């Protein structure tokens, strides 16, 4: 049987698209056809109204007015319905013709959260049930199945109230499913919107899922989704000494792969535990381009509420390992930074408990810093200017800028960045120190790219 193969080849499912005959029908062709029909109606009206041209023209004008309104409304509705996907883009979840046949008559475990949505906002779990797919378990990553838990918050196992399906949390002490939790499953289906940054933990969850699948002879299928930091790589490459749940593999902070491509890489590079390789299948996106940006239907976690926060996230997340807040407890997390100990900085905010930040750092204290909500650039790099600036402005003799738990180093994947900032190195000098490792990683990355860039 296929699952007994010692090293099954990873698969990318593809399809041939046959357009409908009317998909590209020119508008002027349809208009001429309609004009011909109107001319025919004119002749019929002439006969019907026995030469009463005034009455005939009144009816004719009313019908033409209705026709024009219908055309306008048709174009208006069509434009706004297709505006985000005018190039025919489809996420993996929106291509059921490629994966439902793989799931029929199988027992499935689904790894997903609130981002597992189809284009019409149907959740992937609901869609599978509607199509009579047998789901035995739901596995939930950090922040939980509904995505409403704080970063690092303990999430209990439970039952989905809508479907009655058991939910197993893959966070806290149970980051990797046990053999008992995988028992009875034929396939693990993974559908989560990632953000393409090494310390964002959904790729670590995928890694542990793939390890457990390999150990229990279970196939993994990934429904691929866009990476909002795709098409480029940046930042220090992880050193083994600093391996943790916020960085499992030797990759840079921004690694330029979709989550489906990423899974192929860690499988084929032998980075999973004991080098085991599960049977692995990617349901690819349609008409996806790695340098294009696609709107997210749902926030990937409570403190990434919009595209701006996602864009700034890799550059600002370093502050989580310092005595500086990234705006948790405000309406604009990861779109600002500040601290009671930053002097001569004009902007200020006061963190308070809210959705996604029940106990925010510096709760109810004035934090001085910088407001980046209107930062004009669409960043395509890791920007160190803010952490370097904050370090220079920081004034607190009791607590050092970098927290004592070395969380900054875990996020960076190395202790070199912290030491370089303390030594007063410029951003240019720091970036230069990454280049050899980035060039080496690019040789690996290129092997797993399946989309144009």
From TrEMBL:
Spans traversing the lipid bilayer: none
The Peptidoglycan beta-N-acetylmuramidase NamZ C-terminal domain, residue ranges: 312-451
MF term (GO), any: peptidoglycan beta-N-acetylmuramidase activity
Domain of life: Bacteria
Pfam families: NamZ_C (PF20732), NamZ_N (PF07075)
Residue ranges occupied by any Peptidoglycan beta-N-acetylmuramidase NamZ N-terminal domain in the UniProt entry: 108-307
Protein name, as recorded: Uncharacterized conserved protein YbbC, DUF1343 family
């Amino acid at each position: 049987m296929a699952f007994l193969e010692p090293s099954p080849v990873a698969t990318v499912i593809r399809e041939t698209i046959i357009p409908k005959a009317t998909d590209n029908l020119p508008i002027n062709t349809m208009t001429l056809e309609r004009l011909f029909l109107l001319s025919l109606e004119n002749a019929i009206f002439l006969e019907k109204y026995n030469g009463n041209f005034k009455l005939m023209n009144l009816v004719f004008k009313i019908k033409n007015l209705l026709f024009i309104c219908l055309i306008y409304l048709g174009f208006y509705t069509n434009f706004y319905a297709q505006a985000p996907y005018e190039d025919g883009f489809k996420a993996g979840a929106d291509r059921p013709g490629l994966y439902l046949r793989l799931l029929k008559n199988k027992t499935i475990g689904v790894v997903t959260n609130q981002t597992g949505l189809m284009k019409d906002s149907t959740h992937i779990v609901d869609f599978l049930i509607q199509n009579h797919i047998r789901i035995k378990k739901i596995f939930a990553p950090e922040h939980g199945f509904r995505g409403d838990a704080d970063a690092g918050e303990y999430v209990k196992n439970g039952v989905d109230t809508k479907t009655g399906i058991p939910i197993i949390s893959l966070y806290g002490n149970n980051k990797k499913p046990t053999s008992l939790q995988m028992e009875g499953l034929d396939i693990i289906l993974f559908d989560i919107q990632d953000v393409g940054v090494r310390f964002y933990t959904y790729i670590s969850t995928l890694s542990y899922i793939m390890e457990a699948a390999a150990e229990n002879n279970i196939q993994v299928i990934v429904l691929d989704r866009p990476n909002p930091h795709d098409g480029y790589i940046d930042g220090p490459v992880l050193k083994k000494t600093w391996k943790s749940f916020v960085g499992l593999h030797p990759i840079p902070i921004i690694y330029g792969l979709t989550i489906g491509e990423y899974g192929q890489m860690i499988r084929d590079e032998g980075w999973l535990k004991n080098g085991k390789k599960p049977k692995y299948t990617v349901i690819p996106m349609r008409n996806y381009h790695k340098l294009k940006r696609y709107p997210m239907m749902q926030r990937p976690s409570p403190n990434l509420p919009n595209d701006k926060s996602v864009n700034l996230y890799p550059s600002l997340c370093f502050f989580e390992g310092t005595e500086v807040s990234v705006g948790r407890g405000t309406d604009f997390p990861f779109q600002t930074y500040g601290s009671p100990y930053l002097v001569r900085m004009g902007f200020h905010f006061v963190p308070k408990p809210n959705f996604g930040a029940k106990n925010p750092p510096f709760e109810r204290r004035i934090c001085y810093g910088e407001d980046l909500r209107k930062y004009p650039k669409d960043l395509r790099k890791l920007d160190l200017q803010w952490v370097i600036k904050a370090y220079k402005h920081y004034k607190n003799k009791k607590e050092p800028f970098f927290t004592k738990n070395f969380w900054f180093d875990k996020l960076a994947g190395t202790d070199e960045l912290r030491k370089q900032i303390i030594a007063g190195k410029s951003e240019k000098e720091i970036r230069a120190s990454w280049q050899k490792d980035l060039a080496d990683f690019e040789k690996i990355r290129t092997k797993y790219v399946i989309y144009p860039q």
